[in-house]
Amino acid sequence: MLRTSTVTTRARTARVVPASPFDLITKPSRSFSSSSTSNKQQLVILGSGWGGYELLRKVDRRRYDVTVVSPNSYFAFTPLLAGAAVGTVDYNSTLEPVRAFPDARYYQAWADKIDFANKRLTAMPATGSALRKRLNAETTDESSEALKPATSFPGFKPFELKYDKLVIAVGCYSATFGIPGVSAHAYFLKDVRDAAKIRQRILECFELACQPTVTDDERRNLLNFVIVGGGPTGVEFAGELHDFLTSDLTRAYPQVVDLCKISIYDVAPGILGSFDKSLQEYAEDKYVRRGIAIKGNRHVESVDEGVLHVKEEGAVKFGLAVWSTGLAANPLIDSISELDKDDKTHSLRINDSFNPSTKDGKVVSDVYCIGDASALENKLPPTAQVASQEAAWLARILNAEVKQRAPPGAFKFNNQGTMAYLGEWTAIVDRSKADGPQGELTGRAAWLLWRSAYLYKSMSLRNMVSLSYHWAMSAIAGRRLSRF
């Protein structure tokens, strides 16, 4: 898998506000306490992903005054985003609202700076105003009306929060490896917004291909869907897209669907490098039989609008490029200079109780870090199950401390195995390195286990029912093809 520290501008979980010309929005800042009357300890959680949201669910909110700071007002069930991107499930079926917990405060904001010495952090609102939209796009149009003083936008001012205990669960960004044009011309699949954009682009490509002025060569280029990254996310999206093409789009666009092509590019020789070799071969064989090209040992040099420049192939024209090549450090983590970091991932080094340390080895006992932003000594993979289990264990630590009970001890990861959907009601399940019963499963039985596991893992009864309904409707009546 490719590695780098370059960060894309999408799917933000934290933001360092740039210097001039936007400095005018950072002054003056306002200071808030999580609670002005409560004697409870102030617990601030940064992030609402697998780590932050799971901790919010399981920490004792009766004994802690909990505040969540996240640019997203929801938790996204990321394994289902590939299905949402093609309409197999509804977007809302993958989301859980952070505000479902009325006994916790929530601010939709980016954490910009942490003052560990004084136990304070600075945050910037992540919603509202035309200025926020311009900052999201990283524009530098100084003449724009958007660059008005911050006082013109109610609520759009930086603010400070105090904490007694701080949990950093901001996750990571998609890595672009410094390759020019990736952020501008490729799509990512880390958030529900990304899934919505991908779905719109797929349908847009088909509508453009049906225009009478388009040549057959242009149609082939528009209907060439490339996926950069052969990990589980890229492979599952390829499977979902193949299902979409061979069922719903075949009926809706019979005149052009035969021109479609799906290709997976990776620097590794094959796909699913984290799975057992036999499962890799099974997946590759399935995809080759379906006409999905597996292009290993490929190096993308740059991306232009509609063109992927590959070292081994030259210019590859496409209609949609989905980039899923790995993770890079969050800007908030990059901004922290006081704490020790992993040399390779630049994540915060933590002990078995999730506490980071200063560069001289002093443990910061009132700060915790979990999920992709952290690095345990035993180097666990940056997956949802790791972040979720770390959050559940941290909740036990915090609950034991506030109740003055013995701590649960060092964190122990329970490897439950890995799964990937391959399309056409087939999947693979790898428990060759799992704790407990070990083995492998493929085909329809693996698909049933895959769906059952994700249905069970859904955070609410509402989403369990919603997922079941949309899976059934997609199979019986097909996916919706409307664009809006």
TrEMBL record:
It catalyses: a ubiquinone + NADH + H(+) = a ubiquinol + NAD(+); a quinone + NADH + H(+) = a quinol + NAD(+). It is an enzyme of class 1 (oxidoreductase). Its EC number is 1.6.5.9. Residues 416-479 form the External alternative NADH-ubiquinone oxidoreductase-like C-terminal domain. Residues 42-391 form the FAD/NAD(P)-binding domain. Keywords: FAD, Flavoprotein, NAD, Oxidoreductase, Transit peptide. One of its GO terms (molecular function) is NADH dehydrogenase (quinone) (non-electrogenic) activity. The keyword Flavoprotein applies. InterPro entries: FAD/NAD-bd_sf, FAD/NAD-binding_dom, NDH-2, NDH2-like_C. Pfam families: NDH2_C (PF22366), Pyr_redox_2 (PF07992). GO terms for cellular component: mitochondrion. Belongs to the NADH dehydrogenase family. This is NADH:ubiquinone reductase (non-electrogenic).
